[in-house]
Amino acid sequence: MKGAQAAIGGSADQEPSNPVRGEATLVIAGRPYLLRPTFDALVCAEEELGSLFALVERAGEGALRLTEIATLFWHCLAERGALTREDVGEAVIAQGLATAAKPLRVLLGEILKGRS
Fold first, then answer.
1. How far is CA 10 from the centre of its chain?
2. 61-85 per-position pLDDT tens digit
3. 31 within 8 A of 116, measured Cβ to Cβ
4. Where are the domains of the chain?
5. Which residues contact 58 (CB under 8 A, 6 or more apart)?
6. Could you tell me the pTM of the whole model?
7. Do 25 and 110 touch, CB atoms closer than 8 A?
8. For residues 38 and 107, what is the distance between their CA atoms, to the nearest angstrom?
């Protein structure tokens, strides 16, 4: 079961991501971490980054900065353990922006549509 969970976005001790709930997965140091855009997580991100709608607009214009991506991911991590923000930023760089854009799209989509 461990392999199946990792393949769909979870880990042995973590439930898999559920895109229907607006969740995504970010691989950090070879381990998948669940990104869950809860109300609290998004409020914390907004306090630091400013308006989330402006963040979405910047993303649409291709003007989103690396630090903004890492900050949004940091606040949406369901479990941080011993991770630092630098670990999150390094993971984005290590896998490349094209790969990091996949979970980013999920989170930004959730910000725009809300929960039904």
1. 13
2. 999 999 999 999 999 999 999 999 9
3. no
4. 35-113
5. 64, 68
6. 0.83
7. no
8. 10
